[in-house]
UniProtKB/TrEMBL annotation:
The keyword Membrane does not apply. Gene3D superfamilies: HUPs, TPP-binding domain. GO terms for molecular function: electron transfer activity; flavin adenine dinucleotide binding. One of its GO terms (biological process) is fatty acid beta-oxidation using acyl-CoA dehydrogenase. Transmembrane segments: none annotated. This is Electron transfer flavoprotein alpha subunit apoprotein. Its cofactor is FAD. Residues 7-197 form the Electron transfer flavoprotein alpha/beta-subunit N-terminal domain. It comes from the Bacteria. It holds the Pfam family ETF. FAD binds at residues 246-247, 260-264, 277-284, 298. SUPFAM superfamilies: Adenine nucleotide alpha hydrolases-like (SSF52402), DHS-like NAD/FAD-binding domain (SSF52467).
Length: 333
């Protein structure tokens, strides 16, 4: 166990060769953990023609970047990426290894945890260090979001976690930061790979819009029925916002599944979040509480949503929202 040292972040790169936002967020979170432990922070950068991104990893908080630039790593495949990461992890032995809880990050982390026979905490929303025991404290909602569970990996290394996008904060990039770039020559051969990427079919649902939206109008069961929920669409259209909803709204069929916000839906961090007719259940709040400004409209003054709201309006959505729409339409004229 003593041989393992340092904090690592898996740097995910998209098809256009840009570093994914969650990896930059993890460099911010990883920096804090590494500083607590007084060890270096490293990024693991894999792909084809990606070595040019290594400096960005350093500017975003890393001390070291391990780069494997190889044509076999052109597009994500479990087998190829797993092989490369395991070779690096076995050689350099990090004590903590973080991945974005993205489809590829989750896939890779679970495959690596299995191969290295170590523990993995999935979908983490908080990270800290128990300094005395030098243990990673990875916390995530459990039992339907009613409690936060802190999970430790006491007997195996590296301690691994996938972390939800948009819950950690990236550092302001600093191009005066210096670091080490270590390029690894690994033996990876296309003929050894059992899978090939033949085509990429993009998911062009509204989900992407929701995650990147600056303004979201979200509605809950308080709107009454699908007809009542039209007010949410109308307000969103008036102010150029995206629409989202609670799980109950999705289950009622008022909105498609990809527009659900919360623990089992999307995590969003817009500049402005309207929560209209939403009670503020913890499972919803974990997905929107990091919004910059939260405006809640609810007829119950005791509703939990007011605990996280920046501004609260107590009243009937059917009276208040039409007035807002009218006002906003007046402004836009
Ligand atoms: P309600 O709880 O019914 O609240 C309606 C609110 O509207 C009330 O506060 C009421 O006062 C108010 N209201 C009523 N009429 C009006 C009116 N005319 N004007 C203004 N306000 C009015 N939920 C999610 O949202 N996202 C998730 O990802 C999610 N994941 C879950 C995972 C698990 C494992 C579990 C167990 C639950 C999950 N839930 C999730 C469900 C969650 O617990 C709540 O049930 C849900 O968020 C409640 O939705 P709501 O606020 O729309 O409805």
């Amino acid at each position: 166990m003593e041989e393992y040292s340092g904090v690592w972040v898996f740097i995910e790169v998209d098809e256009e060769k840009n570093i994914e936002g969650v990896s930059l967020e993890l460099l911010g979170a990883g920096r804090a953990l590494a500083d607590k432990l007084n060890v270096p922070l490293a990024g693991v950068l894999l792909g084809d023609n990606i070595r040019g991104l290594a400096n960005q990893v350093i500017y975003s908080g890393a001390d070291t970047v391990y780069v494997v630039d190889h044509p076999v790593l052109n597009l994500y495949r479990t087998e190829a990426f797993m092989k490369a990461v395991i070779l690096l992890a076995e050689k350099y032995k990090p004590e903590i290894f973080l991945y974005g809880a993205t489809p590829n990050g989750k896939d890779l982390a679970s495959a690596i945890a299995t191969d290295l026979s170590t523990g993995l905490t999935a979908d983490t929303t908080m990270l800290d260090i128990d300094l005395e025991k030098r243990l990673l404290e990875a916390s995530r909602p459990a039992f339907g979001g009613n409690i936060m569970a802190t999970i430790l990996c006491k007997k195996h290394r590296p301690q691994m976690a996938t972390v939800r996008p948009k819950v950690m904060k990236a550092l302001q990039p600093d191009d005066s930061r210096l670091g080490k770039i270590i390029e690894e020559e690994l033996e990876l051969r296309e003929e050894d790979m059992r899978t090939k990427v033949l085509e990429i079919v993009k998911d062009v649902t509204k989900k992407a819009n929701l995650a990147d939206a600056h303004v979201i109008v979200a509605g809950g069961k308080g709107l009454g029925d699908q007809q009542g929920f039209q007010l949410i669409h109308e307000l969103a259209e008036t102010i150029g916002a995206s629409v989202g909803g609670t799980r109950d709204v999705i289950e009622a069929g008022w909105l498609p599944h990809e527009l659900q916000i919360g623990q089992t839906g999307e995590t969003v961090t817009p500049k402005i979040y309207f929560a209209i007719g939403i009670s503020g259940a913890i499972q919803h709040v974990v997905g929107m509480k990091n919004s910059e400004i939260i405006i809640a409209i609810n007829k119950n003054p005791e509703a939990a949503i007011f605990d996280v709201a920046t501004y609260g309006i107590v009243g009937d959505a059917h009276e208040i929202v039409p007035k807002l729409i009218q006002q906003f339409k007046g402004i836009s004229k």
